[in-house]
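Priority: low. Protein: PaaI family thioesterase. Input follows.
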Amino acid sequence: MQPGHQTRESLSEAGWRERTLSGFADRMGPLWTRKEEDGWAYGILAGAEHLNPAGFVHGGVLCALFDHMISAVAWEAAGRQPCVTVQLGTQFLAAAREGQFLEARGRVTRLASTLVFAEGAIATGEVEVLRGTSVQKIMPRPAA
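Result:
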């Protein structure tokens, strides 16, 4: 198997769990999650549906995975209050291909009263493909 390439079976054996989500998050996936010592990791097993016309994983897929992961990190840091993206900055560092597993991890760099500042990356194997930062706005919980 090439670096970063995985199968559903190998992901399950490594402790990853496939999630079914609603809305746009379901369209970008399926999304995989795994609990780790310092939080959660998120991932997508790149398939043909994730590719651009050149045959590489589309930058929009990478940005969507990063935004989903970083908002989940902010949500956890904000006491599980909803968070929305105010700013998202990304740098594409390498190309990803079909069959590779894209792992996204992030961390909070600063927590203010209404904002969460965070950074993170997406990698496949040992190769970092995207690095980014985000500012998330903590929203009030919806009324019951």
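The chain has one domain: 8-138. Residues 83 and 138 are 5 Å apart (CA to CA).
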